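Weekly modeling sync, notes
Attendees: S.R. (lead), two postdocs, one rotation student

Agenda item 3: backlog of single-chain predictions. S.R. asked that every request posted to the team notebook include the full sequence so nobody has to chase files. The rotation student volunteered to paste the first one in as an example of the format we agreed on. Action items at the bottom.

Example entry:
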Amino acid sequence: MLQRIGDTAFDYLLQGLLDAPTVEMRETFTRLGAGFLDQYATALSHPSPFVRRQAVLGVRHCNGAGLSTVPALLPLLGDTDPEVAREAQDTLMMRGKEIEASLVPLLQRIRREGPGRQRARALSVLAALGGETLLPAEDVAVVERLIRVKLADDRPTASWACWNHWIAVPSGDQARIMNTLGLTDPRPVTFALGNDIVDSDGHDADPGSHDGFTRVFVTPELDGWTFVLGAWCDPCDAERSEDVLRLCTLLSSRYGRAAAYYYGAQGDGSAWLVTGHGKVIRRYCETGEGEDELLTLGDPLPFERTRREELGLQPVWDPVLESEDDADEWKWAAFHLAPEIAEHLGGSPLGIGPETVSRGVGVIALTPYGVVQGVPAGAYRI
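Predicted structure, as returned to the notebook:
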């Protein structure tokens, strides 16, 4: 039970912010909670970690009314309770943009002068608010040195993003592949860092924006393949599909083959584009979008035909012969097919692991979008 801090209504609001099951109810608690802002601030130093954590959440959900209290969260970056420290860090990342001009100097002072317990999380908040532009040169150098140290023992790790997009090329010619794709400013990264950036870009991009198209993770050579990961590689995106087709066709004219894939790991569908010797062999999308069929090119791959036969369907889809139930059965099977097709055709970043033969170093590189608009800030795992 929530420990009392002197006001039953205040306790109720703190608990409500945690437990409200709907957006509308949380908005109600937010409006009511703004009237208790002073008590939230007082509760930040309460002896109970549980109360401190709820007070942090109270400040977070007060929206504009709570901005004046945000700097009071700085001491909690070094809280003895890890959960409290994490919530303070997350709240500063979420709300700090709105008071960046006043908050950043305080965080930078912590980085220079301490207290020591607050320094690590202060660095994460600075990275989330503005990236390298807000970090002292000494901190940038430390991060780059840490990456170099970790790269010595880095082993391949499968991509684990919620939305996976990648281009696969049967070559280890990383530099020329990047040149062909128009990628620039490569910077070495570990697999953990590359995968975290790709996943974060997929979650943080605003709908309709180009934020997710600014950078990609280019792997080292893995069992003879190089993979380029990121939403910029999406073969079925309304804006990217034709350029991805052009680029894969160009890659296949140089390396014999190239393919691009999309796989939504949360049940969001699949897409595959396969090219060979400068020509499109097949493009197919099954994502639940109404115009998926307009992207279909070429005849079904042998793997598709085999899977349809396993389901008791005709090897090639025929709208005259196929029932609605048969069409639905294929749709749901195809939703999960991209990783299997990729493995069948040679390899997938979803199927690599420590035993995968690796040569070279992975990099994060800028796409043409990233060159024009810059890259989003963020704090990532190295």
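Discussion: group reviewed the output briefly. The chain has a mean pLDDT of 86.
Action items: rotation student to repeat for the remaining queue; S.R. to check formatting next week.
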